[in-house]
Amino acid sequence: MKAVRLTGWGREPTLADVGCPLPRGTEVLVRVEAAGLCHSDVHVIDAARGALPYRLPFTLGHEVAGRVTALGPDVEGTVAGERVVVHGPWGCGNCARCAAGRDNYCDRRGDLDWHGLGLGRDGGMAEYVLVPSARHLVPIGGLPAAQAAPLSDAGLTSYHALAGVRHALGEGTTALVIGVGGLGHLAVQILRATTPSRVLAVDIREEALELALRYGAHDGMPMRADTARMLRVGTGGVGVDAVLDFVGSEATLALAVEVLRPGGELAVVGSGGGRLTVRKPGFLPAGFRLSLPFWGTRPELAEVIALARSGALHVETEQFPLSAAPEAFGRLRQGRVRGRAVLLPG
Ligand SMILES: [Zn+2]
Ligand SMILES: [Zn+2]
Questions:
Q1: Distance, CA 117 to ligand 1 centroid (Å)?
Q2: How many Å lie between the centroid of ligand 2 and the Cα of residue 182?
Q3: How far is the CA of 43 from the centre of ligand 1 (A)?
Q4: Residues with Cβ < 8 Å from 240, sequence gap 6 or more?
Q5: Residue 72 neighbours by CB distance under 10 Å
Q6: Backbone angles phi, psi at 230, to 5 degrees
Q7: CA of 222 to the centre of ligand 1 (A)
Q8: What is the pLDDT of residues 308-344, one digit of tens each?
Q9: 165-291 sits in which CATH class?
Q10: Which pTM does this prediction carry?
């Protein structure tokens, strides 16, 4: 079968012919219908040798939806023919966190040489993918695969980030989304569907702001020198209750703490490498709380899929055949993908 393989650090992935895996034990074979491309794929490709614990080569693709086609003899919890999305952050499988579907915060993450599906283990940019256990699967029913796949990371990560700050977003509050790409445009929709907050969006790209407005943001503004002042004015001088930062650069973190209301919540989702100095007394808002969410839990993925099936979420996608993976990665690197790029191996 064809698969998009990472064969060397800093080298573009290549489309290779590999053997189709056979499920053993608790393993489940899924025929891939769609696999999303993520900025973290680019971070993985560009990583310096030794920066990540992964062993090469492996198949990329951690946002995967498809159909169960074969089962190992010990599989419980799914049947052949079921359409599913894969919960990608595979942990050790044995600790209390993993047992609760919270593999994203596995207690033994530091001991593993993978972070999950397509991240050190063979992922879904291929015709088939082997999943270690049915506990990583969430049924999607009739949801289109190109919609379901991005929900397993872009949707789930946004949902999980919001779960940590939702308590601050009651009636009469304001939420700010910084960076309206694959994750941000879903965060806007999840905010609108699950909170009564006013939703503001900031991005450097005009087309990203249009995307935010189209998907329900109440207002969008470009990232400029006076953005913090404009946001203050836009909130009657009080500031925003929660910021979801999908960029995480020095500039966006500075903006976030400048516009947060006292007691406000900042969730840093983007891995932009920015730094924030914590000092007391200092310039940070009183009562300010910070979270560094990573991906999301399996129960949350089921909630995201349910939201999408209810019609509350729509993923903006650009779709490519598997053979066009190099072109899709090129567009992602150039920041030219609108919403999420998705590969369709079928
Ligand atoms: Zn990702
Ligand atoms: Zn674990």
A1: 10
A2: 28
A3: 10
A4: 174, 175, 176, 200, 231, 259, 260, 261, 264
A5: 17
A6: -60, -40
A7: 25
A8: 999 999 999 999 999 999 999 999 999 888 889 999 9
A9: alpha beta
A10: 0.96
